[in-house]
Structure formats: structure tokens, C-alpha cells
Amino acid sequence: MLIYTLKRLLAGVITVWFIATATFIAMHQVPGDPLMNDKAVTPEIRRNLERKYGLDKSVPEQYFIFMGNMLKGDFGISFTQQNRKVNDIIRDHFPVSATLGVLAIFFATVGGILWGALTAIYRNRLPDIIIMFLVILGISVPSFVFAALGQLLLVNINSLVGASIIPVAGWGTVSHMIMPSLVLGLGTMALLTRLMRSSMLEVVNEDYIKTARAKGLSPIRIFFRHQLRNAVLPVITVLGPQIAAITTGGFVVELVFAIPGLGRYFVQAVQQLDYTVIMGTTVFYGAFLVLMVIIVDIFYGFVDPRVRLK
Amino acid sequence: MNTQTFIPSPDDFQPAASLVSVEQISRPSLSYWQDAWLRLKKNTRAIISLYIIIGLALFTLAGPYVWMVDPALQDLNQISQTPSFPKTAILVASYQRWSGVVFDDFPAEPEEFLDVIPPPDNLRVDDVATTQRVRLVWDPVVGAGGYNIYRNQRLPESINDLGLPLGSALAGNEVSYEDRLNLEARQYYYAIVSTDGFDESDSYSLLAVTPQLTVTLDEAARRGLVDGDSGTKAGHEIKLEFHPLGTDYLGRDMLARLMQGARVSLFIGIVAPFLYVMFGIFYGGVAGYFGQRLDVLLMRFADFVVALPFLLFIILFKIGFGIGPGESGITPMLIALVLLGWPATARLVRGQVLQIREQGYIEAARLLGAKSHYLIIRHIIPNTMGVILVTLTFAVPAAIFTEAFLSFIGMGVAPPTPSWGSMCNEGVKTMLSHPHELIFPATLISITVLAFNLLGDGLTEALDSKMRSRE
């Protein structure tokens, strides 16, 4: 178990290093330089500015400085908002995105397992057909359409009730969190439902279920103790990469619902070409995602002993 | 002891009587692909999806030749039109100033200030109401020193809900107003409130007016709606440009834009997966076939590429390779998708190749003297075709989704090149007032992705008994 974990961690560190390097290279490919947008300055001031930001050094030197700073945890200062450090931006806004993401995953997992189990129980009957139809819709319709429709639904609910009971945009209270996390989790929920369904149907045909039935266990006990537990395994496997999908889906949801999360800042920075913010958030997101995948893999190792005894 | 040796001669052999079994079932034997095609045809959802995809292909390839409207042509007179049948408009001459109606024998200022000023009677339209101008006339009110005119797009519920304040008539005997503000061919509710110069009255008169759509002669000539010398004069009806799916926020025809957007989205959605699946087949095939150290090395590299966060890298790619002015941004996205998408296929193909490599017929062919490349091309690759085809069919909607998503956040193709994703982005901004701008591209994306997903499901069931989901 320990070796398994260590190997994954090492691979993760190398990946994060690779991401940081690739980010650095990409940033230096962009034509022009970060000081382009400043007002016309005299050459001396410009040289001073370059020296301050380290832009007058050679690229390999800049790379080492960048790497050194990053290891210390310093991502620099935002170019467009020059009184904010990138670290502060991440610290202020990441908890918002994290809350959104955690809620979304919670909805997606609970919903996916629930609906998937239902379709397996009522196989080929009406609930199954309805749920599978919704699942196919959920997989096919893009997330931003769901976000827009979700907002529209809230507007209609509010106008029906006459007062603004559920806020349509923004962040702060619990009622702000419901619709965005639902919308964000929908795609993953559909995928998990489908996965759960095929997994349950496979498990049903396994020998140990037959044994359990032959032993005389009650159907409920078989269902919860054996079927559900074993069918959940593929769902956990897929959860790791799905966290990445939810993170990127969060960009759109934050844009549409005007949530002050890190994703929205990232997209804005990309559109405004704010290099330090882009680099900092890219590396941060990359490290975060790698960490999440490793955690899920470790968790899977706990749940399924066959993996760690390999 | 039998010393006679038996030497067989041809006469000792006679053909045996053939037995024809009554129960012999004869049916032409099917090849793998024929069997798979039969199974696919039985799956209605997959066949419907196939038809949808063929329809989309026709829409994309043949559409622009049938519906020959320039998708980049902006017509700022027809911003955000809803889908409709062809509209007709009346030709009119250019705007002529109207002197209005002023009653000479009525006092301009109120002679005595009343507590309650009644609203004006007989509010009516003078001459036909057109989108060029609406002329309102009413009867003068005793005790009024002026009138305020309001316009609303829906029925006002109270004195506080009268809508847009258009203007005022500043004298008690000035009883007309001409409205020329952004008139559309829809129903408006005009309200007139009398004032005595200091306060407004609490009551109002209401008039519902629907102006007729008009085009001036000069405008029509400029837009090419009439020939210069066909003799059309003011008062004639002419047909306006037909926009069956409406126009977007810059007046560009939606149908033409959707067709061009289809080209962009489907080009990226089909070419990128095709390229990276090809590369994945080659990579996975080599890794699986040659095995051992080469396999381990190649797969480690593939694992790295998989672990990279997909979207972040695509965004970095787009920034790194930049989009110059005039470029459409399609190529960087294509390159990025290909570079980041191949490991999944490579891994699948490698797994299949590892399985097939152990089969008996490979061993037999090798014993017969087959070289490596012959085995790979002639035996292994065709047997992985099932997996490859299914991967391809599921990779297309994933690529379309990714492209739409990137265009939605503004990191996709650059304007004015349309793509379904960027059209959705523009449509979301006007979702509440003009939903059709969002509905059409979003529906098209959904239908395309749905069709490919269902087709992929059908192919999975048809091609591999092991991969078939149990019903």
C-alpha cells in the first residue's frame, strides 16, 4: 500500500513539474511582452521596469527564477490588477470554486448511484426508460445550455412566486449555491447513472450473488451488501477524471451565474492576457487535479483490496 | 499365416452414396462485418442516429449551395429578428416633417387651475401608423396646459406603469405628437396624460397601435430589394429579405451562420478525432505488438500526456500559438485537440493488440513464415477495428463538446468565424429577450452529440459480443 502511494505521489510531482514548464514555455511564446499595454514610457523607465520584473534576463534564467519562486509558493503579482498578488487571488477565490465543486460532486455521486440503482431494479420498465432518456439528454446537451436554462428556470420561479426567493446570480448564502452546483453536477450525474446501471447489471450475473441467493439471504441484504458495494467500484474509478471535468465545467457555471470563483478569474486572465495570473492558476489547478486523482486512486486502493495486492 | 499382401487398386474404391439430410439448414454464411451490419440495422435508435448524421452532413456540405446568403453580411436594420415567414413591407417616400395639429381657438395656458384634470378624449392615429412614424392626435382638454405622451410595449396596469416617456406637448392647444423612436412592427400602447404645467393628472387615455412595416425608397434601392427602373413607387408592397431562422444581434442571417458554423464545428469534431485515433492506432499497435521495454516506455509517455489537465493545456496552446488578425483560430485548436487526445486510443488499441497477439492464428501465420508488418497489417489491425470504430464514434461528440465549450468561454475560434459554441456564447447574452439566438445552435449541438452517442452505443452492441451491455 505504501509503495503504491509513493509511486503515485512521485509520478504526480513529475507531472506538476511538467505542467509548470509547459506553462512557462507557452507564456513565452506569446508575441509581445507583458509591458506592452502600459502607457508610453521613456526607455530608462522601461529598462527599470524590465529589471524589476526580471524580463531583461535570458529565458533560461527567468525559468530558474520562476521555478524557484514557485517552490517557495510565490506566484508573483497580477499584471492587470497591480495591487493584488496572485497568491491572494487564489486564496480569496479558490474556496468559492472548491465549495461549488464539492457540492456538485456530492450531487452527482449521490444522484448517480441512486438513479443507477433504480434503473437496475426497475430494469426495462417505465422508471428505467424515463431515467435513461434523461441520462442521454444529460450527456448530450452542453453544460452551458443547462446553465442558461437553469437561470431561466430560476427567473420564472421568482416571477411566479412574485418575490426573489432564490437568487439568480452571485454567491453568499446557501440558496445561492443550489442551482449552480446542480447544473454543474448534471453532466457527471448522467455519466455516473449510466455507469452504475451497466455495472449493476454485470454484478447481478456474478457467481457470488448466486451463492448469496442460494444461501438464502434476503434480497434487500443482497442488494445493499453485495450488489451496491461492488457496483460502486467503477464509479469511484471514474470519479478522479470527473473531478477535472467538473473543474472545467465550473468555468462556465461561474461565468453564467456570476460567481466570484477562481475559474472566472482564470478565464478573464486568459482573455486579458494577464500572464502571472495565468501561470499561477494553471500550475495551481494542475497540481490540484493531480492531487485529486491520486487521492481517489488511494481511496480506491482502500475500497478494492485487489488493486493494492497486485 | 497369411502371406498374401493386399495391394489396393483404384477398383477397390467407389464413391459412397451421399446422404442428404432433410433437416439441413442452409443459409449463406455471413462475414463479421455483415453480421455486425445486420445487428446494427435492428437497433432503431442507431439507425435513426445514422440518418440524422447523414442529414447533418448534407446540411453542412450542400446547405450553403442551396441557401446562398452570405453569413457575414450584417444588416443593422434587422437586428435580432425572430424566425418568421417572409415579411412584406410598404414602400414609402423619405420622411417628411409634420406640422402637427394646433387649435387656434383654444387657450394655450389653462384659464383656471382645476383640482382634477380630465384625460384627453378621442385619442386616435392620424393617417396610417407605420414604422417610419406614428402620428397621434387627440381632443384638447379644458384646464390643461400641456400633455405628456408615453409608450409601452405591453398593457399598462396603472398610472405608474405607463412605460417610456416619449415627450410632451407644451401647450394646451397643441394636440398632436409624432413618434419616430425605434418603431417596430409590434403592438404598442400609447398613453396621454394631461398636465396643467405643474402637476400631471392622475388619469390617462390609452390607445393600442400596431405600426405597419415600411421601407423608404432609398433604403430599398440600397439593399437591393427593388430594381432601379422597375417603376415601383410609394404605396407598393415589396418582399423583404427572408430569414427563416431569424437574425442575430448584428443582423446576420441565422441559417447561413448555422451552416457555416456547422462546417467549422464538424470539421474540428471529425478531423481532430480522426487524426488522433490514427496516431493512437499506430502508437498502440507498435507498443502492444513489440511489447516489453518498448511497450513500457511508450506507455509511460502516454500516461504523462493523460495526466495533464486537458483544458488548461488547450488554453495554453491557443495563447502560445496565438491568433493573428484575420485568422480563424481553427488550426491551433485542431493541433491542441490532436496532441492531447491520442493516449486514450493508444491505450485501448494496445490492450486489444496484447489480447490478439496470443491468439492461435497469429502463431500459425508466424510459423508459416509471416513477417511482423504483414501480421500487423493483415491480421491484428483489422481485428481491432471494432474497438477503433467505437472509439472514433465516441470521440467525435467529445471533440464537438470541447470545441463548443472553448468557443463559449471565448477561447475557441475567433470572430467573425462562426462556430456553434461561439453562437451559443452570443445567444446567452440575449437569452431573455431573443431566445432564438441561443436555441438554434444549442439544439444543433445537442442533436449532433446525441446522434453520435446513440450511434456509438449501437456500434458497441453490434460489433463485439463482449462489449455489449446486458439488457
How would you sum up this structure, described in words?
The complex is a heterodimer of chains A (310) and B (471). Chain A contains 12 helices and no strands. With 310 residues, chain A is an all-alpha fold. In chain A, helix 4 packs parallel to helix 11, helix 5 packs across helix 7 and helix 6 (143-161) crosses helix 9. Chain B is α+β, with helices and mostly antiparallel strands and 471 residues long. In chain B, 46% of the residues lie in helices and 10% in strands. Chain B has 12 helices and 10 strands. Chain B has a 4-stranded antiparallel beta sheet, with no helix packed on it. A 3-stranded mixed beta sheet of chain B has the order 9-1-10. In chain B, strands 2-3-6 form a 3-stranded antiparallel beta sheet, with no helix packed on it. In chain B, a hairpin with an 8-residue loop joins strand 2 and strand 3. The interface between A and B is large, with 50 and 42 residues.
